[in-house]
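Continuing the series of single-chain predictions for the mutant panel. This is the parent chain; the variants come on the following pages.
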Amino acid sequence: MASRMEMTVELRQLAYFVAVAEERSFTRGAQREHVVQSAASAAVARLEQEFQTALFDRSHRSLELTTAGRTLLARARILLAEARRARDDMGRLTGGLSGTVTLGMVLSTGSFDLLGALGAFQAEHPDVVVRLRHSTGPLAGHATALREGRFDLMLLPVPPHGPAVLGPDLIIDDVSRIRLGLACRADDPLAEAHGVTYADLADRRFIDFPTGWGDRTIVDSLFGTAGVQRTVALEVVDTTTALTMVRRRLGLAFAAEETITSQPGLTQVDLADPPPLHGLGLAASRNHPPSEAGRALRRALLAAR
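Parent structure:
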């Protein structure tokens, strides 16, 4: 039977392994855990020695998990989440609220004052560490990451039939509404136009997210309904890059209205049929309920609506 000291070491090894697996890099994984790369490499090597199997296929340009690695990753996430909750709950019983909460967020939170909510939370609970982590990709991927315990809470886009689409195992509370706008340069002829239709944009080039991502799906649907085939010339994974490209005359881009108005040199196109409002929800998993610190952060975020 493993001793208490060995169990502590094992948890740390699992944390390093999970970081390396999720970042698909020993360097980035080590940076995330604030250790040198050799420590992360040694932890993974020790796990592979203990289980007598390779956890990563190192023959590719980026690290790929083996079947054993994927199995361990799922188990490790559960164990680490339970360990965090246990530490947090014990800390609450012996003193003030403490612990770590990982909050996932999408690229834009619209008008929701996330920074204000975090400031109020930190003032009340200074010993709780909140890790903000961007979650990118299709909506189903956000939900999966939450189910797997990679995040304790997540701010994510909610489609019209959100709970039904995302699944009954997620608890989702609306915190805000987001409307996409079309960004162009202030000296673009579109800046002075009124009632611009999607047909008017047929010959323009666009910067957008990959196919299947939430905002891309909304915009593709609008153009499809209008019977217009648009050209997505550049695909990006963050709004800042997209709007920088607009400023550099590389195309037009859809982004949250609040984001466009805050960008110097850009303006919002007056569309005849603007994208519909969609929700921003705060989600938690029923299968991996947040710790006491996570529940406190959830209350603070909901109070900021």
